[in-house]
Structures are given as C-alpha cells and as structure tokens.
Design goal:
Length: 197
Amino acid sequence: MTGLAAAGVGVVAWQIAERVGARSDGRALVTGPFSGPPTNTVTDPVAVFQKAFWKRPSAADEILHAERREWHDADGVSRWQWFIGVKPSGALVEHLITANAFMLAPVSAGKRAAPRPPAGAPDWFPAEAPETFANAAGSFLVLWDKERNILHATDGGTGFRPGAPEPAKPVPAAPSEGRFPATPPPRGGVLSAPEPD
C-alpha cells in the first residue's frame, strides 16, 4: 500500500470513528459533524470563554484550559467546537446551573445514557464528573466537580450561514390616469374661501 493510500484510509477511518462515536463501555457519546482537522484553533482563554458562555469572565473566574476549533469554508466558519475548564465564580455557577441560561438538565444515572465528551477532546478534558448537565441534544455538556469547584464544558455545532437572498423589491408602477383631477385648478392656481352670501 502506498503512503498516499494509507493516509487516505487513515482519514476515512478517523471520520467514521468520529461520526459513529464508538466507546468500549457502550454509553452514548456526544459527537459532531466534523470532518478533517480544524482550519483554526483558538486558545485565547477570554475569547473561548466569551464564545462558550456568551459573557465575559469575571475577575473571580479562573480559566484553567480553553480551546475552540473552527472549520472554515468559502462562507466563513462552517463548524465549531469548544472545550473549557474553569474554576467558576459563584456568578458563573448561578448563570450556568441555577439560572440555567442554556437550558441544561442534570443527567441522572439510569434515566438515559450519560453523554460523553466528543472523540478527540483535549487530554485535559475529563470523561466524567460527579455532576453532569446536558442540553436536550446532548451536545452542550457541563461536567462539574462541585467539591473541588472545577467545571469543564464543551459544545459544537455548525457555523453561521448567509441567509436567503432578499426578494426583489417591486418597482412602483407609474400613476394611472384618472388619479389626478380632471379639471384645472381655480384661477390663479390658489384656492380661495367661498364668498359670503
């Protein structure tokens, strides 16, 4: 087998493993529709935090690890995936868990298979934690060790696509005849008040 053929087989096998999400323990796995290596990886902790939680970190949020992967095409970001590890402030816990800004639900053992981090997660990202929260799709995943106050989270999805083109604006038609008065204006072109009787 030539080197090029071996590389092709390896890429195909990697894509299949990512999509299938096979785990030896049989539990569900959060997977994304990602193919090939990302075209851009962002490791700026504040930028990843803001993209992940839609807010700026407070001075009390200690970001331990952060990574955002992006796949680009001609229209911009076509796919994204992020991972973050943080010692959260009380305000961040309030935002994510108590106020439930992202509609996450606790994952209870036995009720459904607990979502797992996606294949290819960074080495620092844990496979499980004492408390796990997930959105309905199982893609937004929060692993929280309340005792140690360490929170790990991940999500992924498709990028922003341009909307449908705007429909052509109708061109106003020229005014039809009969719209204007059929008689000329009064003398002098000025309307005057009627004469008193």
